[in-house]
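Exercise: predict the fold of this chain.
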Amino acid sequence: MKKIISTAVLLAVLLMTACSETPVQESSVSETQIQTTAESESETETMPEKQSSVFDGHVSNTVISTGNNYMTDAKNGVTFRTYFPAEQYGELEYQFYFSNTVDSTWERGRYSYAGKSGGAYQILNAHVWTASSPDSDDDSESIEITFDGSLEKSVAPDETFWSDTVKINVPDGKYLVWEWTIQGEDIPCIRMTELAYSYIVNPDGSLEYNMDVPAPQLIGTNRNVKKNIICFGDSITQGAQTSAYAQNFWVSEISEQLGSEYAVWNIGCGYARASDAALCGNWLERARSADIVTLAFGTNDLAVGQYGQRNSSSADEIENWLRTLIQELQNAGCHVILFNLPPFDFDETTEAIRIEINSRIPAIAEETGCDFFDWNTLLENPDQSGASLYGGHPNDEGCKIIADAFLEQFGDLLQQ
């Protein structure tokens, strides 16, 4: 018990100090609202130019989320295979990026939590090819992936690293298939339920469905795009509970409508909190590489609370974390689009906090120079406050409504 308490205290301290340039708010609404319009305009005018990043020259080429919100084991060596839909087809140079740290907390963090170090593990081999589906017989010849010229790699806890560059031709309508054999324990992964075809490959070659997917954090290409858009949030961003394998979640809908002239990198993680993102780890560093970031957190801060706590986070706490994230992203030169909290059929006490933080978010956006997207109005039952029309995790219909409204509101911004 002492160890658990100590870990929680340590993370609380890290949350207060990880973002060194960001002052922690003492925050009440009255305090934040006394900023003048002139101050707000001044902040907007002095927004930093886009900062250089380790991701420069690389954009995502899949809408499937590639964060880390869980851990899996491969003690005796396990082969994992995942089918990624492409945003742009044809021959491109690819390079794959990895982070051996958990990005966000799963449930209450009993097994994995934001900032937890991955275990040391070994990459025994990695391959890519293309295919129409897991059941097709039109697979292309596989291409070996190397790391500093080697087929194998030893990965240390918290290590970040790239594969070597490789040319891959993904024909129109086919999947990019990623397969690797890794050996070790506590390997960060993302929990996905029927968002991407993902399997464990058994020794006899048979495929066993697998929802705990260790994979690259960036399926990166060097394609030229008008805008690099990163969608930063929780399972509603990730795409949970939309139709199986159909890519009908709102992030994918936006990508499809924009076309391949835009890159859309989905880094949404199921169960993620604003408090996780505000630890300012590698997850946030990925978000900071965007031209435009959609910032959609708060639901899990209410549903399960901060890691190490046993109750919903307060409106003040959520506001502080959102302000931290906004400042960190703007310091990197990102244009931030701040979302409010969608309906989630909360109990009366929790719903009262959601109403309170939602009442503040438009002012937060105005004061910080963000754009504001009101998906609560799109998704809430107009006859019952807090009740969802399309499910707490919006279904296909709800996601199409979100995407259409988003593109109508921000079409001009995307063309700039």
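Check your answer against the key: Residues 125 and 151 are 6 Å apart (CA to CA).
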